[in-house]
Each structure stands twice: as C-alpha cells, then as structure tokens.
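User: Please run a holo structure prediction.
Assistant: Happy to. Please share the sequence and the ligand.
User: Here you go; the ligand is magnesium ion.
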Amino acid sequence: MKKFINSPQDVERQVVDGYVKAYPTIIAKAADDIVVRAQRKAGKVALVSGGGMGHEPAHLGYVGYGMLDAAVGGAIYTSPAVDRVEAAIEAVAPGSTGVLLVIKNYTGDVVNFKMAAETARDAGVDIDYVVVDDDVAVKDSSFTVGRRGVAGTCFVHKCAGAAAEAGESLAEVKRVAEKVIANVRTMGVAIEPCTVPAAGKPGFTLADDEMEMGVGIHGEPGVRHAAMEPADAMVDEILAAILGDLDYAGSRVALMVNGAGGTPPYELAIVANRAHDVLAERGIAVARTYMGPLMTSLEMRGFSITLLRLDEELEGLLGAPAHAVAWTEGDAPAAAEPQVAAPAVNASAAAVEPLAPTDAAPSADPSAALVARALHAIADAMDAHKDELTELDMPIGDSDHGINMARGFDAVREQLPALAGADASTLVNKAAMTIISKVGGSSGPLYGTLMRKMAREFKGCQKISLAEFARGLKSGIAGIEELAGGAPGDKTMLDAMVPALRSLEDSLDRGISGAEALEAAARAAADGAEATIPLVARKGRASYLGKRSVGHKDPGATSFAYIMAAIARCEREVRTCATE
Ligand code: ADP
Ligand code: MG
C-alpha cells in the first residue's frame, strides 16, 4: 500500500483538520469528527449528514451556506457511532427550528442515525430523517435492505439545504429531500480498486483488462465483473440502466459526472461528452452539469453518473445560492444574516463513557470475574482473527469487519481495570456502550444491542447460570431483529446466533451444563457460520450483491462463532482451575 498518509490510525482526524485549516471562513470543528458551519444561522432547519469517511469532499465539503449545517464522519467506510451522531445533532439543534438527518442507505448508517434521532427526539428536539437510495446497480426488493445511497446524496444536500436556508419548515425541507430522492438515480463503474488504509489491501481485485460495472462507493461489487470496454460503452450501459429505471423522457435533468477519487478530470470530460450526446439523442435536456470528484471512494479509479429529474421547484433550489467548500452557487452569503458562533462540542470520537479508575475491591459477584475473563478472551480472539474477519468482509462487504471488532473489544479490554468492582450486568452493559461507540458500522450497534439486552437479563443475578445466559442471548437476538429487521437465513450474524441459542436450549433440556453446553453452542455457531456460505444475503452490505453473495461466509456470523468459542474456552479454564 502506497499512500500519502502518516499512519492509518491518524487518517480521519488529519483529514478533518486539513479541511478545517484550509477553509476556516466556511467550516469549523465542533469535535474531532464533527464539522459545522463557521458561522451558523439560527432560526432555520439544520441539516445533518455524514457516514464513514473516505468519500471526501463528502460530507464535510458540503457544510456551508445553503447546504449542510453539520457533517459527522466515522472511520474510513464505517458509519459513525450513535453517540457521535448525537453529538453532531447537539452541535446544531440549539436555535434551530428542527433537524433533518440525511442518511445514505447502509445498515450501519441507518441504525446509528435512527438511534441518535430517537435520543434527540426524547430530549425534545424536533427531528426527522430521510434515507437516500439512488444506486440502480442494486436490485430493489422488499426482501432486501434496498439500494445503496451514493452520489445522488449531494443533490439532496443541495436542494434540501436551499429549502432550509429559505426558512422552510422541517416538514417542508423533508418533502423536498424526498422529492429529490424519488427523482435521482446513479450508477458507477471502476477499473481499479481502493485500499482502506487500516486494511492495507484493496477491497477487490481487477485484472488490467477488467472493470467492475455497478461498483458501490465502498468498492462493493456491482452488477457485472467484465472485460474492459471503451468509455463510451461504459457510459451507454450506465445510462441505459438509469433511464430504464425511471422515466426521464422529455424531462430536464441535472447531470452529475462524479469521479471516484482516482479518475483525472480529462477522463471525466470524456464521460460527460458521451453522456450529453446520449441524453440529447433521447430528447432529455441537460439543464446543469456537475463534474468532478464529488462523492469519492478513496483513490478508486472509477466514475458514476447521476441524473436528477427536474421540475421547476428542484431547478430553482439547485440554482439557489450555496457556499460550501465543494459546492458554490451564486454569490457568497450576505454577512448581515443573523449568525451564531460555531458551537464547541468538545467531545471527541475517542470519547467512551469516562470511567474513574476504581480502587474498589473485586466484585462480590462471582459472575463478574467470569464476565471480565470472557471479555478479555473475546478481545484476544478478535485480535487473533482480525485479518481473517476483514478478509471475509472483502468479497461481500467493505473490508472492515475484523478491524471494527478488534478496535471495539480492544477498547473494552482497556476499560476492564477501571470496572473492577462492578457486577456482571454492569460490566456487560458498559462493554456494550463501548462497542456501540467504538465499533460503529452495522456490527457496532448490533453487537451492542445484543450485549445490552444480555446485561438487562443478568441484572440482579447472583451467578449467571446457563439458563440466564441463554435467556440473555434470546433477548439479544430479538433486539437485533427488531433493530435491523433481519431474520435467520438472511446470511448475517443471526445465522450463527440462533443455532447457538438452540443448542443451549437443547443442552438445558438434556441437563448438560457449563463448559460442555457452551462448547456445543460454539460448535453450533461455527456450523451456522459455515452454513451461510451457500446463502444469498438479504441484509447488510452483502445483500447488494444478490446472488453473487453465494459462496462466501458471512463475516458477522464468523465473528460470533469466535466469540462463543472464547466464552466456552473461558468457562472450561475456570472449571478446570476450580477442580484442580
Ligand atoms: P458494515 O457492514 O457496516 O461494514 P461490519 O463489516 O462490521 O459492518 O459488519 C458486517 C456484519 O454485520 C455482516 O457480516 C452481518 O453479519 C452483520 N449484519 C449486517 N446487517 C445485519 C442485519 N440487518 N441483521 C443482522 N446482522 C447484520
Ligand atoms: Mg464491513
């Protein structure tokens, strides 16, 4: 891997700092991972967007007059955690007449942003959200998570931002955002992949003469892995897919020719040239063209084409003044507008709930020691299998699962000494909060939910019995299903969790106890993970591949199998020690 970086751990913070230092009159830092307008206008709806970083200038480059009020960035390609989205909302909610979240349709983003919206609503913020799903490369069906949100999101920022700037109500700004979503379609192609710095290897591979047609903005596979074609043929295929999906006949459109990060301007111009010719032949009038790196995928050599079907309202909103780092329209805002200084939300991305070191005696709860050992063992297992889990996430995801899990459980392990006096339920609950906050993506809130539900089940337990562990797992599985809408058979972590639960219940029925029961459950989880290989994914990123997800093992199911194995190993060691 050759990149202009210092170390993979520093990338996100240095990117934010670089942008803020370069454009101090437009944007300011509210926290390490949250960018707000340098001059914030009160008395309007605040627009908040974000997601994993690596798509610059999205989204921090769209913070500014007439566009976003705040952008929150997670680790490269990983959704920001719930508490970070909450912090972004907190940074702009005071003085606003409501908050609209613009979410791209990825499980991690949807779950984290929706959970944060609920917290804000409970705190009295008038808040709503929209989900952008413009990628026609992905089959849309009620059985899957639907389409990915890609470059069309920029048009949502622009039009909803203009409506918000004009003083429209939250309901009105949301209506505009939804109108854009209903009228915008995108598809992309790549000829060379991108490498997530922390992964160190490209997310997919292409031979010199190959292309990935329909690629996602995280390097997710598309509709066709095929031999290279001339640029015009690629443009024709992409436009055929877009025009086949929505009726643009006789419409005026806004055309976006987006570079994926590694595509030079002269190549984008060749794409734009053909796109204009094809649209002219079809009688579709291009009212505006936007060309350049607007929603990138690190250094990927690719491009996408977006068409927004316009009416008078949308065309007016596109033409309204905007002054953001990566999008300018008309004159800069008049300084006489009522302004409020940028807020200082001093929480940082690294902020896990602060824990005062405790001198408390070890907990009287015998289960607490076992839980602490188990959390330690899980962290070791995630470290040991980090590369393998990340590699499983390459062909059907975005190459980060092992990195996510190791980062989260390493933080849990670091937290353990400070929790010496805590009971088992508190330990699991604190660990859950750390996982939610540190892992991000979709696995963070999902594993966090599992652990929070388990913690609730363990409350007041003198000693966590196998029956209580099984009840906790059952309630955790229900929590994951409720949060992310999946079910066993969808090729997710549930496909390892549910067999583990069944095995535990079976052991309880048959009077099998302790380590043996946990070992059987760990085997069932591992078998469940193996059994995901022939499944077609219906949830999570892998679902975007449709049938092409067949033949690959689900990363989340695999990490759960390792977690169960670590728990079983712990129980076995403790029992062995006790009887020696
Ligand atoms: P992301 O997909 O955000 O990159 P990770 O790579 O860390 O997050 O986790 C991916 C895993 O999350 C998948 O392998 C799958 O097991 C799990 N997952 C995704 N969506 C769901 C869902 N709706 N229900 C249960 N598990 C899911
Ligand atoms: Mg992933």
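DSSP finds 17 helices and 17 strands in the chain.
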